[in-house]
Amino acid sequence: MNLVLVGAQWGDEGKGKIIDILSAKVDYIVRYQGGNNAGHTVVVGDKEYIFHLMPSGILHKAKVCVIGNGVVVDPFVLLQEIKEIKKAGIDIGGRLKISALAHVILPYHKILDQLRETKRKNKIGTTGRGIGPCYADKIIRCGIRMVDLLNPKILSAKLKDNLKEKNEVFKKVYQHKGFDFNSIYKEYLNYGKLFAPYISNTALLLNKAIDANKDILFEGAQGTFLDIDFGTYPFVTSSSATSGGACVGSGVSPAKINKVIGVAKAYTTRVGEGPFPTEFNPSFGKFMRERGREFGATTGRPRRCGWFDSIMVKEAVMLNGISELAIMKMDILDGLKEVKICVAYKYKGKLLREFPHDFEVLSNLKPVYKTLAGWPKVFTKPRNFRELQPNAKAYLARLGDMLNTKISMISVGSAREDTIFLD
Ligand code: IMO
Ligand code: MG
Question: Which of 20, 27, 40, 52 is catalytic?
Answer without folding.
Answer: 40
